[in-house]
Amino acid sequence: MPALRFFSFVAACCVVAAPAHAVKTKVEEVYREHCASCHGAAMQGGSGGSLADGLWNHGSTDQAISQAIAEGIPDAGMPGFKRALSPEVIRSLVVYIREKESSNRPAARPVPAAASTVPVKTTHESYLLETMLDGGLETPWALAFLPDGRKLVTERGGRLKILDEAWKPLPEPVSGTPSVVPNGQGGLLDVVPAPDFDTSGWIYLTYSAPLPGDSPDTKTSMTKVTRGRLSGNAWVDGETVFEGDPDTHTTRGVHFGSRIVFDRGYLYFSIGDRGDAAKAQNLSVPIGKILRLHPDGRVPDDNPFAGRSDAHPAIWSYGHRNPQGLVVDPQTHAIYATEHGPRGGDEFNLIRNGANFGWPLVCFGMNYDGSPLTAKTEMEGIDAPLHHWTPSIATCGLAFYNGDKFPAWSRDFFVGGLKGGLHRLRLREGRVVEDEVVFDSSVGRVRDVRCGPDGFIYVVLNQPDRIIRLVPAGGVADAVK
After folding, report:
1. Which residues are catalytic?
2. At what angle do helices 87-103 and 62-71 cross, to 10 degrees?
3. What's this model's pTM, rounded to 2 decimal places?
4. Considering the domain 11-103, what is its CATH architecture?
5. pLDDT tens string 97-126
């Protein structure tokens, strides 16, 4: 029999009638039991075609692959597996195939060095990478620009640092900042100056905070928003803007969310599900939500759930897993977010007033251990993502480009990935029409992305810990002429 592509299983080498409960739920085991004998242990192909080369004869979409597994392709000699495998397991197989397909995909272009002198050509622009700060940082998390040319950088361990106009850190971190709980993914996270910083001096921080009265040595924490001012190198006038009730604090060190944006006089910020997925659908708690407040912490009367006894009044949208990218289009005032999926299913979303984004009822991924999560990738009443990534790029940091140094990138989005480098998304008429890798993860784990006031694109990296920027291929001198 000729090698048939796209799950061309033959009955002799595949079990097709076993009850669903007898099938192991780990996707790697499911693949070995049902697929490897025909398609190879590494999906390289055998009596059935390769599943890892990106070439599909019977449809390349997730839906087409799922249908082929479930219903079979009789003309190709492939039986259906819907009696042997549950829809959830079939969905996990699709994710597993996408992972292998992605790992086999050749790089689109050479990876630039950290301070490359060779321009990198992309679809619309060419750029150089410049290192702004290399050394002196420990797990930097966020970058902010002050009007006088200084910069602020948070370190997850709890330090806030001021960089001067030449990107040189002051000898000591800012004193008097709030005590954080540096447990797992928690610590000192986002930093954003208020839109009226010139007159108010307010700077906003998000961080993993202990219960009031607890020592920071505790592992129990919750995302908190505070604001304060700088007096020299000291944090002063600190005020709590948002703090969760005691029963929202947990020892889980994951999914704090923590990005902040301002729009039309309101403060928006994200909180992840804190490792308790069901709470993302629970309107009585702020967990797994994007929230909206007045800058001083008061709840706006027109919030979608304000006034309801069964809902937290600050909620703006819900059903989020861990949103670590948040940005506003200053022209349309639309708010966009990126959030981590589990193993697969990272999302880019248009955030709407009162909308449910589905976690964990719908998802494009599976559990980290390879066990199935859900077969549903859409559902009535759930806002679908504008774009999603499987395999995950571990989305972190999101910028909207409205500078003047890269005119061909105007109004594009730049999405950071802790394992996926830097992606550029182009949105047209509500659809993502381009997803381009600007540089890959070999440059570093992208923690934050900002469009600087000078029109250059700044990126905060971990492993190694440094800050870089993208400048036009002609260099800074040409760009500022």
Report:
1. 255
2. 130
3. 0.93
4. Orthogonal Bundle (1.10)
5. 999 998 888 766 777 877 778 999 999 999
